[in-house]
């Protein structure tokens, strides 16, 4: 049951990255691919029906963590207090930028929100990458399972650690490039005209950067956390996830060459799901790694959950997850086809 | 400065601010469904025009509700880590269910409702409104069920390490406290939305604008408002009886009742003097509290002297004032709605300028009543986070200290102030623009050309 809920939590988080990732990526790229107001609105029209629902996956992942591993949630979220609050503020600014921009036609008003949208999207991608790096590297948990982190120390990724060091900055950059690349494929699939052209061109370059950075980040991860490769070698799920990521990467380049927008985008989703899945499977059973020694790490078995409560939760989860996926299908069906900029007063 | 005070104040500030928006959207969701239902029939165009205006207001409120709601979920982890560790396997259930069952539904259909009128059939658009109504009211239930566990814990057990465990899922989700509180709270949200709608109708009528539709706003607003006000009082009575049974010390503090005894009077006016342990210059209806709380005029109602001081709510004055303001405003709102309905019945509502002025200016009152109502519930729960089981003082994050919280609290204050200015600006524009017909589509690409 603990293994299953570990997998569910990882799956929800991976879904969040794959889904909100494309609208974050669209936000990161919006100043580059969309230059006029109608092009910007085309970008917003492309992500408009999805972004709010995509963000719910983050809340759902948080909910799964809360019910299944309350100790992990309590230590992890309070230990990263400042970073989490900054994430919340960025999410706030970004949501307001998307929703409020179209209400007023004044070009200054719109430019201001375009800036907020792009800046918050960029920061969020970097934050999530840095957070991932911190999980992989570990945090200074004490014997009661609490920690707090300073922003940076000596950038060595060795105790005493800070939120930022060479490794977490690397993962932050990787997340930024990967999500931008993901967003480029989404925009290339969902738009026409100049936005499509620019997104397509950017996607080619960005995915080459991802393909180069990915092995570097993987090797660096094992450098700061030597338990990762042995964990990966032991578990067939990790191998499967790596295969999914590699397959996704191939599908992207094939899709880009043959101008198959949807195929390339699905490949990019598979790459992100595979990367997160492989990391989670190799990391298991640890959920919060301690830099002060393995004994201090919090694992899935001591995450604070109980079997009976998790069995109960599994029942409603198995009802709720198909519903959530069903809505996703309905929304994609309702908004199939290319996104066009809406008229004023009609949409984004 | 004390860490705990700031943790509490940050949560209180962010949740009071947040709840200004859902209370309108939850109530409005019901009114929009009613309008879209009328819009299905023959001659439904004006109802659809009316609904379209409120869907735009709904959209702005919903956006602010979403972005201020996300910090609420996260604060369980950031600021209340020891509480999350202690009770997470129980309250995590309802909080996670809210995401899965309510938020996905709402977020998937908001865009469809807001921008899909032209793409969908009348029935399709009606179903989008229903989906949003179901989503937002489910969301309300999961939050209330979480709060109800904190008010009146049921269905739980205690594990070997002292943390709480879920034992009986059915008892936990169908907590009788949750059902009473849910009915009271959702009806109060409908009161807010009804009074806001009536205020818009009154404003347009006084300004002589949007005449036929302003009349719909007025009549729907005061009609639904009156029904909701009466039901809020009925459900409030039920909830007060539960407080009397399960949190008698909270009831004593709400009423400023320092001494126990039979034939307790209901306090209308008075100032609690905690230092002297008495109520200054009280105006009381004799025997009424005994009757309301226990159903007989002779019932013994315990006062604060029946309980040790370490289980008293820690801010008796604020609790007392919050409760009395809520009850007083509830009475005033019922009277306004009743008078307006009677005038509408006689056909004089649109011509009665004083009544229109009252309706136009009364819309902040339900917001205040909802806010102080929640303050009554939450201050009455103190000093417990989970009533009788886990103290508030034991729940905050051990690694997050006062200076840090003060910094983020000030950040939230500043951001929320800016957000509120923007919100008022956009709502003001919508009100100034007013309801209008659906603009027919002319030529493709029209939107690209016009900026």
Can you walk me through this structure?
The complex is a heterodimer of chains A (348) and B (451). Chain A is an all-alpha fold and 348 residues long. Chain A contains twelve helices and two strands; from the N terminus they run H-H-H-H-H-H-H-H-H-H-H-E-E-H. Chain A has one domain (2-334). Chain A has helices spanning 2-33, 37-47, 51-68, 70-79, 81-100, 107-137, 166-190, 193-224, 228-234, 236-258, 261-283, 307-334, and strands at residues 286-288, 298-299. The model of chain A has no long low-confidence stretch (mean pLDDT 91). Chain B has one domain. Chain B has a two-stranded antiparallel sheet. A two-stranded antiparallel ribbon of chain B has the order 3-6. Chain B has a two-stranded antiparallel ribbon with strand order 4-5. The longest helix of chain B is centred in the middle third of the chain and has 36 residues, at 211-246. Chain B is globular. Chain B starts with a helix and ends with a helix. Residues 442-451 of chain B have low confidence and may be disordered. At the A-B interface, helix 2, helix 3, helix 4, helix 5 and helix 12 of A face helix 3, helix 4, helix 14 and helix 15 of B.
Write the layout of secondary structure elements.
The complex is a heterodimer of chains A (348) and B (451).
Chain A: H1 2-33, H2 37-47, H3 51-68, H4 70-79, H5 81-100, H6 107-137, H7 166-190, H8 193-224, H9 228-234, H10 236-258, H11 261-283, E1 286-288, E2 298-299, H12 307-334
Antiparallel strand pairs in A: 1-2
Chain B: H1 3-19, H2 22-38, H3 45-78, H4 81-115, H5 122-151, E1 156-158, E2 164-166, H6 169-173, H7 176-207, H8 211-246, H9 248-254, E3 261-262, E4 266-273, E5 278-285, H10 288-294, E6 300-301, H11 316-345, H12 353-361, H13 364-381, E7 384-386, E8 390-391, H14 402-433, H15 446-449
Antiparallel strand pairs in B: 1-2, 3-6, 4-5, 7-8
Helix pairs in contact in B: 1-3, 1-14, 2-3, 2-5, 2-7, 3-4, 3-8, 3-14, 4-5, 5-7, 7-8, 7-12, 7-13, 8-9, 8-11, 9-13, 11-13
